Input
Amino acid sequence: MPHYPDLADKVVLVTGPAVASEWEYAARAGTGTSRYWSEGIGSNHANCDGCGSRWDEQTAPVGSFSPNTFGLHDMLGNVSEWTCSQYKRSYDGSEKKCSVSADKYSLRGGSWNGRPRYVRSAHRVNDVPDVRANDLGFRLARD
Output
């Protein structure tokens, strides 16, 4: 097994993908706007089909855009992020907990091949847990 001494100091306890409500809190970063940088999409703030970045046709390297006020990069655009919360059409409390056996899970944030209107903190879609695609990803939450 390879040893990576430079990573030893950086290991933290991760719990897995965030619940949907935590993800939205992290994406908003204390703002009340649709996007953590402003209400409008602007240009070169995120990666999507029409967001005005040089990566609008593919995924962008992590950290290509300015972080939000919590210091989190790429919370909107690039890839739609899996959460561990079961998807429901209406909020009913399931967005505040993880599910280990949901038929569909919530995806948040919009992706590189989505239009700017989908790149916002409140936007959510759903998919089945075994789907794989080049516009889906995840972010690990830590305790």
Strands lie at 14-17, 80-86, 105-108, 124-127, 136-138, 140-142.
